Amino acid sequence: MSLLHVAILSPLIFTIVVPIVYKFFRNVHTGWFILPLPVLLTSYFITFVSVTKDNRSIGETLSWIPSLGINFTVRVDGLGLLFALLITGIGSLVVLYSIYYLNKKTEQLNTFYIYLLLFMGAMLGVVLSDNLVVLYMFWELTSFSSFFLIGYWYKRDKSRFGAQKSMIITVLGGLCMLGGIILLYLMTGTFSISESMEFFYPNYVKDSYFIPALIFILLGAFTKSAQFPFHIWLPDAMEAPTPVSAYLHSATMVKAGIYLVARFTPFFGEHPLWFWLVSGIGLLTLFWGSFNAVRQTDLKGILAYSTISQLGMIMSLLGVGAAALKFSDTNDNYYLVATTAAIFHLINHSTFKGSLFMVVGIVDHETGTRDIRKLGGLMTFMPITFTLSIIGAFSMAGLPPFNGFLSKEMFFTGMIRIQDLHLYHLQTWGILFPSIAWIASVFTFIYSMVLVFKTFTGKYQPEKLDKKPHEAPIGMLISPIVLASLVIIIFFFPDLLSDSIIAPAISVILPNLLTETEAFQVHISAWHGFTVELFMTIGVLLLGTFLFLTREKWKHVYTIFPDRFFSTVYDETLKIAQNGSKRLTKLYMNGSIRSYLLYIFAFFIAILAATMVVKEGFKLELDNLAEIGIWEVILSIIIVIGSITALFVKSRMTSIILLGAVGYTVSLFYVLFRAPDLALTQLVIETVSVALFLLCFYHLPKKKNEERIRFKIPNLVISIGVGVIVTLIAISAHSTKLYDSIAHYYVENTYIEAAGKNMVNVILVDFRGFDTMFEITVLAIAAIGIFTMIKLRLSGREEH
Amino acid sequence: MILQVCTKVCLFIIILFSVHSFFAGHYEPGGGFIGGLMTSGALVLLLIAYDMKTLKNILPIDFKYLIAVGLLFAVGTAAASLFFNVPFLTHAFGDVQIPILGETALHTATLFDLGVYLVVIGVTMTIIQTIGEDE
Fold this sequence. Notes:
Chain A is an all-alpha fold. Chain A contains 35 helices and two strands.
């Protein structure tokens, strides 16, 4: 176990400490004990920058199940490190924020921090695992811990509903991903990501597993990253405490799907389906998210849809970036810019969205509501929060001088260049990419403005607020201030990140383009002349401002399409599935033993008849039949008459006596076929059972009128079917004698080996005494069973 | 009255016959199962002719213990073969010199059959007694 393993597992291990410190240091906020861990981890992971800078990676293996090829292998490369830094860095800030956000007296802090640490460890495991099975394990752990975190206020209905919804959707995707992982394993024969990446695309594209694996992996990524139409869980997950939303639902967990897509780009990226699915779904999500964010009235609802939209943007950039793989080198490769933009925007989004969530949390905390219809005019009360929200929202809208401007420009660049790509019929459809991107950006601009100006400017409405608003405590402001300053710093010094973080990450996503000594040259600058992109941004600004100001007039556009359309579809699907299965179960599990017997017999007939037909099993051979004597005929007639009359008689007593007659005739048959032991036993047993039957029927309630067995056609059909099939099988079996009987062994050895002359008895007690031993055990159990049933019945009745 | 007198006579004949068919089991039709059933048939006759209490006075046995003893016999006989380093349920037989009876052919299978015999009596009587006592 190396230090790296310890680092990944340390949050999980640290959960043990949490309840202890929570119990023994009640006066200190538990968060203070947690805070050092993510800070330490951040500084630990920063040391890896020097390694990944040269496109090297560090791998460590810990044996887990080596015989199955499942080992806890971790690999730190550019992509993994970028995510690890985001997780630990934002994790530290979120823990700090939560210390001031959550009240140590009224909240169950121990569970909160346990879930948060579980999540942090799981997330680190996802991004740093090299083994697909281990990755899947951590992936599901993130689903679980986020389920717990969303349902943290478990006494609220909405929290539980949101937690369940996100659980169902993400686990559905997770299981699809597991299917994809298994298919990948079948193709490549290894669970290791880095090893399977060495098998280049052309080797596997012909494989019949390739397309299903691609779709399954993407399903996992899309559900986790809230892509259309799986985005519905994210708005409902906003019932979680705000630090959780800031951490999970903006910066880390929802980017696990992005990570997965980026990670598998070298493997699947050259396939057209990958390009269309990733970029198409991404663009659709981008548009749908930003379109719907505008109509939200809840601050966190806006942020949720905005997260969906931004994730769609990153996703579409990754899809477009995969087109770069079609070109063999890095020179003149226009499409590299899309991947660069994806990585860059990923970082930017984490910074501004994290700070915006924290800002919203502060507003919620200080005013008691998140509804923008109640808020307004808070600027004078909360100047710092206002400034922070301006920075975050303007960056989100893509305005200078904030980092969102840079990545938005690059996004436009990537989308415009797609038209020049002479691939995948893009000559005709390519124009859609920049147009959708531009429209979505306009909506992004509008909701960003709504977020700021509806909350902080306008009329102050004190009568609608529960508390008198005031500025948040400084501790709560530290984290958003740090993130907001990053937003500005990245704008002015973008190259701080480009060589150390972004370029190594790109080299992991697009490794095939590099020769050994090459490195990607990422150069981000704030100004590149009067280009199309700049005019597009100006257009967004103008149209966005116009639409924002005239918002009230075109609001009714939203009535065309219901707000929660896909959520309703989800709810209805669940309802239909539940009711349907309930109805289906009621249909055949009706509680009547008669119907179950019908199923059993019908199945019995069907399966045997089918086997008979398919295997052509029927056979009739008349050679080795014995002579039929007069006594056999007479006895058979008696038996047949007895059994048939038993069906039609009215009185129960008569049918019992008829059954007895049948039984005695059977014993006569034994006499006839020379089986004296059987005849004796049958005689006695028949007497006893007839006596027992009489006893039972004597005790039956008298009120029931005795009537004949009611006639039902299905019963007749089934019973005749069973009779016919058994007869046919008996005849066929008798006609097919494969081997001689072993009886002559017993005939020869009964006296020699076992000193007996009664062969039946010798077989019973000697040759096959084992059976007898357990048969008498069966008898004993039956007797004890009857004894207990009858004796304990009385006391049982008294209890009720 | 006639029934009771007849019972007194018949009981011993039936029991003797059942004992006979038990011991003859190895050579002629019969054996533990039939013997046991007949013995319990004799006891049932007693039960019908008199009543439950009379039977309990004559045979103060809890028949459930009889089941246990019978099973013990069967399993014990079977397990005893393990001590002689032969497989489970291997029977032994031979002529043994016994002080009073002289030279007698004995077979451990009879012990096994005795177990069967006792279990069958126990089972039948338990069932009949339980149902009979139930109100």
